[in-house]
Amino acid sequence: MGSSQGSTLTSAADVDVCLVDFLPVYVKELIAGGAAGAFSKTAVAPFERVKILLQTRTEEFKSLGIFQSLRKLKQHDGVLGFYKGNGASVLRIVPYAALHFMTYEQYRCWILNNYPSLGTGAHIDLLAGSAAGGTAVLCTYPLDLARTRLAYQVTSTEQLSNHLRSFNARPAYGGIIDVFKNVYMEGGIRSLYRGVGPTLIGILPYAGLKFYIYEELKTHVPDEYKRSVMLRLSCGALAGLFGQTLTYPLDVVRRQMQVQNQQSVDQLGAPRIKGTLQGLSSIVRTQGWRQLFAGLSLNYVKVVPSVAIGFTAYDMMKTLLRVPPREKTAASAPPAA
């Protein structure tokens, strides 16, 4: 009887192993990356929304600090207001993170297989990370625009009682689909990609630098500590912080381009942002150079736990899905055509 039960359990385990191992490695990387992105994004959603408000609502949040902004946001929208736009953010980050991790590995293998003369240093991670970041952005940008517009909205009792007297120029969105409909009516498909220029200009160096610095830092770690989760998280956090600081002004330009059609009547006199360089000069001229770094301190607070949770969740998912180490994956991958 006992041997029969044991054989049954063994058979079930064998079936489970076969089902998991049947999945291609790139599918496992997609699943692991998407899950990690969802966990990390939801964990820091309150900080993400306040950062967007600091970047775009200068007349209401410019003089407030991080915790004062959180308190004011809670007074206006309640606790659920911290997560307004998070649905669109998660819908964007799941495919974005999945594509980013998976395409990074694929681009890296492709470069190594087709351009062996480039070597195998961390500069390969710079090229692969930049290409992966651009690919992920182009595929998911409309969801990022929807997330920004939903997060930009702030409800207050005064606005409701006065029939939105102060902000009657700002359309109220009921959800992601409503944003898509309204934005599409503004100018078709091109409107869904408003601000994609600064995004690409920012993400290419940021994504590349993030992978480059992360891999470069790991080369200086003794072999016995390379599997340490805390050490990997520390390397990733440093890489993320450094990359964010260099490219943050481009993120501010992107956010303001995305919401400029929602500006209040008092703000309509400001020059419209039509391009990256013009946007940078316009913001410096009309709002001051400090606005290019509005919310950066909050981004520092947000990046560290986001990177920590993201890497931890990704490692756990890879272990659960039995994803082999990169070296084995690269070695077993067929040469690119």
TrEMBL record:
<keyword id="KW-0472">Membrane</keyword>
<comment type="similarity">
    <text>Belongs to the mitochondrial carrier (TC 2.A.29) family.</text>
</comment>
<keyword id="KW-0677">Repeat</keyword>
<feature type="repeat" description="Solcar">
    <location>
        <begin position="24"/>
        <end position="110"/>
    </location>
</feature>
<dbReference type="InterPro" id="IPR002067">
    <property type="entry name" value="MCP"/>
</dbReference>
<dbReference type="InterPro" id="IPR023395">
    <property type="entry name" value="MCP_dom_sf"/>
</dbReference>
<keyword id="KW-0999">Mitochondrion inner membrane</keyword>
<dbReference type="GO" id="GO:0005743">
    <property type="term" value="C:mitochondrial inner membrane"/>
</dbReference>
<keyword id="KW-0812">Transmembrane</keyword>
<protein>
    <submittedName>
        <fullName>Mitochondrial carrier protein CoAc1</fullName>
    </submittedName>
</protein>
<keyword id="KW-0496">Mitochondrion</keyword>
<dbReference type="InterPro" id="IPR018108">
    <property type="entry name" value="MCP_transmembrane"/>
</dbReference>
<feature type="repeat" description="Solcar">
    <location>
        <begin position="227"/>
        <end position="320"/>
    </location>
</feature>
<dbReference type="Pfam" id="PF00153">
    <property type="entry name" value="Mito_carr"/>
</dbReference>
<feature type="repeat" description="Solcar">
    <location>
        <begin position="120"/>
        <end position="220"/>
    </location>
</feature>
<dbReference type="GO" id="GO:0015228">
    <property type="term" value="F:coenzyme A transmembrane transporter activity"/>
</dbReference>
<comment type="function">
    <text>Required for the accumulation of coenzyme A in the mitochondrial matrix.</text>
</comment>
<dbReference type="GO" id="GO:1990559">
    <property type="term" value="P:mitochondrial coenzyme A transmembrane transport"/>
</dbReference>
<keyword id="KW-1133">Transmembrane helix</keyword>
<keyword id="KW-0813">Transport</keyword>
